[in-house]
Amino acid sequence: MANAVANYFHFKELKTNFKTEMVAGLTTFISMVYIMFVNPNVLGASGMDKGAVFTATALASAIGCMIMGILANYPIASAPALGINAFFAYSVVIGMKIPWQTALAGVFVASLIFLLITVLKLRELIINAIPSDLKYAISAGIGLFVAFLGLHEGGIIVANKDTIIGLGSFSVASTWITVFGLIFTAFLMVKKVPGAIFIGMVGSTIVGLFAGVIHMPSSIISAAPSLKPTFLEGVKHVGDINTVQLWVVVLTFLLVTFFDTAGTLVGLATQAGFMKDNKMPRVGKALMSDSTAMLTGSILGTSPVGAFVESSAGIAVGGRSGFTVVTTGFLFILGMFFSPLLVVVTSQVTAPALIIVGVLMAQATKQISWDKLEIAIPAFLIMIGMPLTYSISDGIALGFIMYPITMIAAKRGKEVHPLMYGLFFVFIGFFAILNH
Q1: Which of 108, 331, 360, 378 is the most exposed place for a label (fewest CB within 10 A)?
Q2: Where would you find the membrane-spanning parts of this chain (predicted)?
Q3: What pTM was computed for the model?
């Protein structure tokens, strides 16, 4: 049985093993488990049942991970994406006063369109049309974005009304958990200790427990909340999508999810060393897995599901096959029943991992042709745009709009793939829709 699994996931070819894959899967899970608690709080603001969203989030993540692992054999986990869930709750439901059931129907329709363009291989064509320099910029930009998330979640970087952002307060005890974790993890990484990121998380948790900053859970096991309040609600309300405004909502769900997940897939594949001749092997299967996960999530009752940036933590500790995220998916299922134990994995515990992973992903910058301004300018806008706009898709949009312009200015317009010209107009429309 063990040999069959190892052969199916190509352990030998990918130079990995059961222990490495399981540690990587656990590390990925610990890095992204916060979504099980954040997503219900965000979508709960729209009036959705938090318990049902909690279960939907866990199941959608588990199914998405397993489909990606088994079908595409990539260590890239899936879960409801941050940012688009806030758009769902605060912009669509609260801002536009659209019932959450109708908004969920919008996610369902967007996921069907998503699946269609995947089957027609349009997503694959678009990803392969992106120049290698911009792919490296996407990878590095995601690294900066992830590091920024870690610094903010850990309390080291905070909002500042005078300077936009600034240094956090070190009089806050929880911030020191992040500081300890970052120093401890960095030390282990430099020493090349296997599983350094995961060990760093465990160490931070133990320190937090002893310091009283992290509290022991009151119980160990709890039943998974009922899925009934959200299950199939989107499917039932598809008929409510009958106005131009609602179709704009559907289009926005589609565009944001498309470029967030496409960018994340490319960035993670680059980090893991999977890219060959500027192409992602098995990209069709990866995109099909991604699209299916989004459709599944809309049926269960959650905002769009897509490739999760935190997968980079598992890749960083050696995860190279789909068995990594099969492990992650199994842990999401277990997480539904052991949710009280997960409270010890605070944002201060996961923050150092995100910062270190950001460093690793930012190494892709050395592959960018910085001596050519027509490449350097759009690449830089992608990288700096992601953390500063707090959006992977917005960062990509800034760079992709600038790329054809700088290439034409350098008299290299003929080298630009026709799809990149098409994306130039798509992203201009994308910004027009978001700012409508």
Answers
A1: 360
A2: 21-39, 51-72, 79-98, 104-122, 134-152, 164-190, 197-224, 244-270, 315-334, 341-363, 375-404, 416-434
A3: 0.71
